[in-house]
From TrEMBL:
Annotated GO MF terms: DNA binding; DNA-binding transcription factor activity
Keywords: DNA-binding
Provenance organism: Croceibacterium xixiisoli
Record protein name field: Rrf2 family transcriptional regulator
Keyword Hydrolase in annotation: no
Highest taxon, organism lineage: Bacteria
Matches recorded under InterPro entries: TR_Rrf2-type_CS, Tscrpt_reg_Rrf2, WH-like_DNA-bd_sf, WH_DNA-bd_sf
Gene Ontology, cellular component aspect: cytosol
Length: 147
């Protein structure tokens, strides 16, 4: 599951992507429109700023904006910087690999093999979506199921 922090970061970044090229966006606007607590949002945007993904300016006319074009930011990259990995288990992580406690040897573990495949397919999917991509609030397949 994605942490609340990661979900908030995605929503904040989507908001900034929607306002890309329009100048600084006030923190309170993002907080209000995306229903994110302002104090938590400040922490998230500061972290994204340190990573060079968001820029900020203080003062009355200040705010936040994307440091990169929305087309250059994938959802996979955003989740990785917030969560550390796309893997569901530590032994399947590409960059934060850890051997699982109380498990089989990695070469004998079918669960690990499955989770490696899940990680790779998840990465392929999330790396294919960019902040610039239009995303409908209700996926087409979900709308079809409701009919």
């Amino acid at each position: 599951m994605l942490s609340q922090k990661t979900r908030y970061a995605i929503r904040a970044m989507q908001h900034l992507a929607d306002r890309y090229g329009q100048g600084p966006v006030h923190l309170q606007e993002i907080s209000d429109k995306q229903n994110i607590p302002a104090k938590f949002l400040t922490v998230i945007l500061s972290e994204l700023s340190r990573l060079g993904i968001v820029e900020s300016q203080r003062g009355k006319d200040g705010g936040y904006w994307l440091a990169l074009s929305p087309i250059d930011i994938s959802y996979g990259d955003l989740i990785r910087v917030m969560r550390g990995s796309l893997a569901l288990v530590p032994c399947a992580s590409r960059f934060a690999h850890e051997k699982c406690k109380n498990c089989l040897e990695e070469g004998d573990c079918r669960t690990r093999a499955l989770m490696l495949e899940v990680r790779d397919r998840t990465a392929e999917l999330l790396d294919g979506f960019r902040l610039s991509d239009p995303i409908s609030p209700v996926p087409a397949f979900a709308a079809d199921e409701q009919d």
